C-alpha cells in the first residue's frame, strides 16, 4: 500500500456505507416526496401535491401537535431535571457511585421492552400503578393522561444519560470560581445561579439540542407503550411517517414529504439554538 | 446508612443532606421497581398475572415461562438473530470505524476535512428522518429480509469515528515514522502499532455498539418482515397485545432481553460512564 493512496483506502469502507445508506437517501428523500406511490414500485409524479395534502390533513396536524407537545415538555423537563440530578450526583454523599449507576441503568434497556413494561404497569384493570395507588385511573385510556404517561416514560428512559453529560460539565468547572464566590460571601443559591449555571451553558446547550432531536424522533417506546393511542393522541411524527410508508393504505410520497418536513424542523431548531447561544455568549 | 462518618468530611446529617438522600432514594426506587417487578412477574402463571390485585410474588420460581416460550414459539430463532446481528455489526463497526479514524487522524490528504465534516454531518441525519429512502436503497440491494440488511447499514457509526479519531490525534506521530523506517507497510503499521494502543476507546465503542444493536428497533422493524428474520425487540413488539403469545411468555422474553445489557452494565459500568463523560462533549 503506498502512502498517497493509503488514507483513501482506510476511509473507504466507512465512507461507502455513509454514502449509500445516509447521504444518498437524504438527497433522494426530497425526490421521493415529489412522487406518489401506493405500492413502493410504481411512482407517479406529484410535484408539491404531497405537501399540499399534508397541510390539509387533520391526521398530519394531530401528529405534528402531539410531537410538539411531547418534544417541548421532554426538552424542558429533561434539561431541568438533568441539572438538578447532576448536582445531587455531584454532591459528596455516601453511595454516590451506586446512585450514579442506578440512575443510568434505564438508558441501556431496550426501549421496546421499557414501553412494554410501563404499559403493563399502567394497565387500568390490574396494573401496578393503580394497585399501589388504590385508584382506578384511566392512564392509557384518556388522551391527555396517556400523553403525560408517554412524557414520564420518555424521561424515565433518557434522564440518566443527560444527567451524566451535565455531571461531566460540572466536574469540568474550576473549583476556584466557587472558592472566590464563597470569599465574597455568596450564598449557596447565589453560587449556583451566578457561577455554576453560566459556566454550565455549553453543556446545557448540548443537552437541549440532543434532547430536542430525541424528542422529535421518539417512536420505539411509544409503539409498545400506547401504540400511538388512544385514538391517535400519542401518535408522533415518526409513527405517522412509518404508518404511511409501511402500513396500508401505503402512501409513500406522503411519508417522504413528512420526513422532509421533520428534517427541516430539526435542522432549523438546532441552528436557532446554536445561533441563540452565540448571541448570548 | 447508620454511620455518617464518610471519608473526607465528617459532618452530622443536616436537613439538606437528608433531603438529598430522600430524593436520590426515591429516584432509585422509580428506576428499580418496574425492573424488579418485571423480573418477579416473569415467573408468574397467566392466572397469577390476571389476578386483581396482582400477587406480589410468583407461586414458584420455576423457569416454566422461559422454557415454554422457547419451546412453543420461535423465540430461540429471534434470540439467535439478535445475537448474530449484534456480534457481526459490532465487529464490522470496530474495523471500519478504526480504519476511517486512522485515515482522518494521521494523514494529510486532499478532501480530508470535507470527509470529516461529512462524518459529523451524518450525526444530524438520523434514520428516522430518511426512513423511506434508506428502505428503498436496502430494497434495491436485496437487503430486505436478510440479516446483512441489519448488519451493514448501521455499522458506520459517526460517533465511533469521532471518538477514535480524537484518541488517535493524541498518539505521537513518531511511532508511525519509526515503523515506516523499519520497513513496515502502511496497513501493517496500523494493525501492529496503532490498533493495540487504541484498546481503551475500542472497549468503549464495543460496549456502546453492542447496546445499540441489541436494542435497535425501527430499522429491524422495516427490514425483518418475515417472522424467521425477527430480532428479539421486533418479535416482542409484534406479539405484544396480539394475544398470539401469552403475556407471561412475553414478560419472560423481555427479561431475557435485559440480561445482556445488565451484565455488561454491572461488569463495565466504569467504562460506560467514562465513555459518555469523555466523548469530547466539552
Automatic annotation (TrEMBL), chain A:
Keywords: Cell membrane, Membrane, Sugar transport, Transmembrane, Transmembrane helix, Transport
CDD domains, per database record: TM_PBP2 (cd06261)
Transmembrane domains' residue ranges: 7-27, 68-89, 101-121, 145-173, 194-215, 254-275
Domain ABC transmembrane type-1: start-end pairs: 64-273
Cleaved signal peptide residues: none
Subcellular location: Cell membrane
Family (UniProt): Belongs to the binding-protein-dependent transport system permease family.
Protein name, per record: ABC-type sugar transport system permease subunit
Naturally occurring in which organism (per UniProt): Catenuloplanes nepalensis
Automatic annotation (TrEMBL), chain B:
Gene3D superfamilies assigned to the protein according to its UniProt record, in alphabetical order: MetI-like
Lineage: superkingdom: Bacteria
Bilayer disposition of the protein: Multi-pass membrane protein
InterPro entries referenced in this protein's UniProt entry, alphabetically: MetI-like (IPR000515), MetI-like_sf (IPR035906)
Subcellular location(s) of the protein: Cell membrane
Family matches, as SUPFAM superfamilies: MetI-like
Swiss-Prot/TrEMBL keywords: Cell membrane, Membrane, Transmembrane, Transmembrane helix, Transport
Pfam families to which the protein is assigned, alphabetical: BPD_transp_1
PROSITE patterns: ABC_TM1
Family affiliation: Belongs to the binding-protein-dependent transport system permease family.
Protein name, entry field: Alpha-1,4-digalacturonate transport system permease protein
Amino acid at each position: 500500500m503506498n502512502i498517497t493512496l493509503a488514507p483513501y483506502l482506510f476511509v473507504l469502507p466507512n465512507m461507502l456505507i455513509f454514502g449509500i445508506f445516509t447521504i444518498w437517501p437524504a438527497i433522494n428523500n426530497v425526490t421521493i416526496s415529489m412522487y406518489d406511490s401506493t405500492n413502493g414500485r410504481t411512482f407517479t409524479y406529484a410535484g408539491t401535491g404531497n405537501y399540499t395534502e399534508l397541510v390539509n390533513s387533520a391526521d398530519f396536524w394531530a401528529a405534528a401537535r402531539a410531537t410538539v407537545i411531547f418534544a417541548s415538555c421532554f426538552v424542558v423537563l429533561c434539561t431541568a431535571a438533568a441539572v438538578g440530578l447532576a448536582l445531587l450526583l455531584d454532591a459528596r454523599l455516601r453511595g454516590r457511585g451506586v446512585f450514579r449507576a442506578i440512575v443510568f441503568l434505564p438508558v441501556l434497556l431496550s426501549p421496546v421492552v421499557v414501553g412494554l413494561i410501563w404499559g403493563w404497569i399502567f394497565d387500568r384493570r390490574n396494573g401496578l400503578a393503580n394497585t399501589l395507588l388504590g385508584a382506578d385511573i384511566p392512564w392509557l385510556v384518556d388522551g391527555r393522561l396517556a400523553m403525560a404517561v408517554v412524557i414520564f416514560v420518555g424521561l424515565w428512559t433518557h434522564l440518566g444519560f443527560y444527567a451524566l453529560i451535565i455531571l461531566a460539565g460540572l466536574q469540568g468547572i474550576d473549583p476556584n470560581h466557587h472558592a472566590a464566590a464563597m470569599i465574597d460571601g455568596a450564598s449557596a443559591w447565589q453560587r449556583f445561579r451566578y457561577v455554576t449555571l453560566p459556566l454550565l451553558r455549553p453543556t446545557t446547550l448540548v443537552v437541549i439540542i440532543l434532547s430536542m432531536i430525541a424528542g422529535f424522533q421518539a417512536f420505539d417506546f411509544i409503539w409498545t407503550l400506547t401504540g400511538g393511542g388512544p385514538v391517535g393522541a400519542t401518535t408522533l411524527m415518526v409513527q405517522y411517517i412509518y404508518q404511511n410508508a409501511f402500513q396500508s393504505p401505503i402512501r409513500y410520497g406522503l411519508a417522504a414529504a413528512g420526513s422532509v418536513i421533520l428534517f427541516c424542523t430539526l435542522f432549523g431548531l438546532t441552528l436557532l439554538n446554536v445561533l441563540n447561544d452565540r448571541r448570548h455568549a | 446508612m447508620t454511620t455518617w462518618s464518610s471519608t473526607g468530611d465528617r459532618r452530622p446529617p443536616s436537613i439538606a443532606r437528608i433531603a438529598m438522600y430522600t430524593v436520590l432514594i426515591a429516584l432509585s426506587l422509580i428506576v428499580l421497581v418496574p425492573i424488579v417487578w418485571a423480573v418477579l412477574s416473569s415467573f408468574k402463571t397467566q392466572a397469577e398475572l390476571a389476578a386483581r390485585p396482582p400477587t406480589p410474588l410468583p407461586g414458584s420460581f420455576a423457569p416454566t415461562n422461559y422454557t415454554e416460550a422457547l419451546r412453543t414459539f420461535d423465540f430461540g430463532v429471534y434470540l439467535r438473530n439478535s445475537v448474530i446481528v449484534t456480534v457481526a455489526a459490532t465487529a464490522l463497526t470496530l474495523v471500519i470505524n478504526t480504519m476511517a479514524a486512522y485515515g482522518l487522524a494521521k494523514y494529510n490528504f486532499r478532501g480530508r476535512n470535507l470527509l470529516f465534516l461529512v462524518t459529523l454531518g451524518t450525526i444530524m441525519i438520523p434514520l428516522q428522518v430518511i426512513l423511506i429512502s434508506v428502505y428503498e436503497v436496502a430494497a434495491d440491494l436485496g437487503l430486505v429480509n436478510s440479516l446483512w440488511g441489519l448488519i451493514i447499514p448501521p455499522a458506520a457509526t459517526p460517533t465511533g469515528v469521532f471518538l477514535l479519531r480524537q484518541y488517535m490525534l493524541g498518539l505521537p506521530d513518531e511511532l508511525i515514522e519509526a515503523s515506516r523506517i523499519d520497513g513496515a507497510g502502511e496497513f501493517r503499521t496500523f494493525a501492529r502499532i496503532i490498533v493495540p494502543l487504541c484498546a481503551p476507546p475500542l472497549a468503549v465503542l464495543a460496549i456502546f455498539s453492542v447496546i445499540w444493536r441489541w436494542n435497535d428497533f425501527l430499522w429491524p422493524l422495516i427490514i425483518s418482515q418475515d417472522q424467521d428474520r425477527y430480532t428479539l425487540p421486533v418479535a416482542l413488539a409484534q406479539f405484544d397485545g396480539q394475544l398470539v403469545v401469552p403475556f407471561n411468555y412475553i414478560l419472560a422474553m423481555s427479561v431475557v432481553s435485559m440480561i445482556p445489557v445488565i451484565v455488561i452494565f454491572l461488569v463495565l459500568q466504569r467504562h460506560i460512564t467514562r465513555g459518555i463523560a469523555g466523548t469530547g462533549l466539552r
